[in-house]
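INFO  loader      accepted 1 record
INFO  loader      residues=235
INFO  predictor   begin
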Amino acid sequence: MKYNRILLKLSGEALMGDKQFGIDNKRLAQYAADIKSIADLGVQVAVVIGGGNIFRGLQAAEGGMDRVQGDYMGMLATVINSMALQAALEGQGVLTRLQSAIKMEAICEPFIRRRAVRHLEKGRVVIFGAGTGNPYFTTDTAASLRAIEIEADVILKGTRVDGIYTADPEKDKTATRYATITFAEAYSKNLQVMDMTAFTLCQENNLPIIVFDMNKHGNLMKVVKGEEVGTLVTV
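INFO  predictor   done
INFO  writer      dumping tokens
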């Protein structure tokens, strides 16, 4: 395996599958199967999921709601998604732990870095919920922060496109995919890999990012093995 400890970032929207809202159980089961396949080989896996399929704090703020209140609601949405993924993984026999940046003792552990690392060392998949626990930060930033804290080898950003393109491939048919790109190039070309806070955290801590299509079964295994799937962003 090329990577021993990874942080997998999943978007909440990806969990919708073909639905307009909520969670598609087929998509959830596919994600769980892919995560199980690499965990069974000894790869240490941590996961951060967004909450956009349920609630977005930014959209609430645009509608007149207090931004801080909206962001906290968004954090709770990520916990719902995290619980769904935990249930799907455990249904397939994978040992998991859910840690939350907001204390909810009845359903998850509080985030404690040393405990999270110990779980990973014992072969448990660790899911980090509730973002950073602070408003004004996205789940991309939470993923970057947690990856640095647990000393992950790489952030794997699972999306519905197979990498970073010169333009939006869903709008521009002439767009081409980058196999590798530097942080500086991505910034200068204004390519939206992650939000700027998350992106800068990764750059300053020399943490590579791989953007790949998580919806294609087996891609996660290929990425972890070091096959050229998606786009690698490095210093």
